[in-house]
């Protein structure tokens, strides 16, 4: 008969009362810490219910779990279309990523053991050589595989593991770059073989997961701030501000005008933050200038060329947006006035509750996209739509942003479109995020000249300068962008098949938190693309799920020690180090609380465990709710939803009940 594993009925002693049988709820439930796992290797994963995932991914291998008893380490992979001929588990058993085999595709490995199909191998090489000693193959009672489930039991004595040991685990399906757990470039998740608890029984609470895209801050869609009519939920907007509208007369920075035209008050009332881009040249269908008239006239009076009016007839810039004015970026006067304008923006919005979450370093080129392409006209004309400046000039513009916003990373962060030296090596020690304005288009992504290729390997830019790589910037900073090709490109990128598959591939590789202004925010809810819209929104950025909370049943001492496991099922970390708090509540009021040491900016894809120590010595006897919340430091209120049930009225989440 199949073992029931952790699906146990529980009894708790409450003071002098006799045992009370707890009902096991269908959504979230309590369980004691079992002394041993009860797993049967038979291809049925139901006995793994309630055991949290170590890692998840969107490929054929979707869930990785681990547990143990006194004899075996048990591993489970669930998925759809798993290979039934080739699959491998990779185990780092010594806790040192610098020893053992350095497996390709993950960020940190150091593998001592490889289980390839049913064959177990111990590594004997120098870290890079493929050198393994075969151990005994696992019998069918210890290894079962199908296209949806892989279960195995590996003896702890073989692996040299015992109580208190830790093991890092990865799974590779059919030697695939994409179909793996964890995803590419991520570290292997760690499973710890906990020793028996000497202090009495532990309560474990498993909140039910919500399989929904959440409308959380700093992720998802970022449509234009100019409109307020968007059916799809979103928490970001894009505001492209031209210099001409921002500084209509010299020294007069018209914040009221730009905030009114971009509806800042409206967005603030709805908890929506702004992504700002400062623009000097925004092509349209009519002749115009986007630098102020006073600036144009001053440059002319100083004997400096103010720039070049253009009309592109090659078709390279697209119909209807091919006319404008490219400023003379090399003008020392324009550079000096640009510095003052950027400083004014930074100073005005330097506050913890700033409406601006991200600033795209723009200014240069058409649409502030760091290019003035096409360079060559239909008759061979050079600098056909204006001259783009060399590094010695463009770096000055970038430096203006770095100097102005260097001390504001707790509420406003900088991103740049092109990988340049200043993106990671500058006088302020800032690491810049990046954004891809042609997200979803494969050639523009990772062809030899593509955005992703350039960020990872470096590249030669449009005017023949060699630019360095800004590889894996998303490990510490945010990645963003917008869909390519207007409505056509966006729809193609969201349509099931090769288009959406390519979008998901780029999401896994470049880890965007948001996309806009070209985004599906304006599409009706329930439109034919809604399923893919939701899938992408959930995977983009961060997506936090509380897997488990554990705490002692008995009141021992003057504090309650709580451990909470949270899984990030998104591709990116949270951009700001907002506090994560554990609370005790009674009658809806917080009676004890502690800010944990969690740094959400380090919470990349995978599991993270936080602990708290809540003072209980002054609390009267009674039953209390345990809760967890991520607080907005500007309001000190819960501001981030977890993908779980049991959301409380103020936005915190229940993670258990405790009786003193």
Notes on the protein architecture:
With 660 residues, this protein is an alpha+beta fold. The protein folds into three domains: 46-200, no CATH class; 225-491 and 514-521; 543-659, Sandwich (Immunoglobulin-like), CATH 2.60.40. The strands form eight sheets. An eight-stranded parallel beta sheet has the order 17-28-27-24-23-22-19-18. A hairpin with a 5-residue loop joins β25 (459-460) and β26 (466-467). α6 (332-348) runs parallel beside α7.
Features:
single chain, 660 residues, alpha+beta, Immunoglobulin-like, 3 domains, eight-stranded parallel beta sheet, seven-stranded antiparallel beta sheet, 12 helices, 36 strands, 16% helix, 29% strand, globular, disordered N terminus, GH, DUF4832 domain-containing protein, signal, DUF4832
From the spread of the alpha carbons, the general shape counts as globular
**Average residue pLDDT:** 91
- How many helical stretches? 12
Radius of gyration: 28 Å
Instruction: Count the beta strands.
Output: 36
Strand content: 25-35%
How many separate domains? 3
Low-confidence stretches: 1-36
Distance between the termini: 39 Å
Helix content: 10-25%
- The strands making up the biggest β-sheet line up spatially as 17-28-27-24-23-22-19-18
Largest sheet: 8 strands, parallel
Domain DUF4832: 432-644
Signal peptide: 1-36
Protein name: DUF4832 domain-containing protein
Keywords: Signal
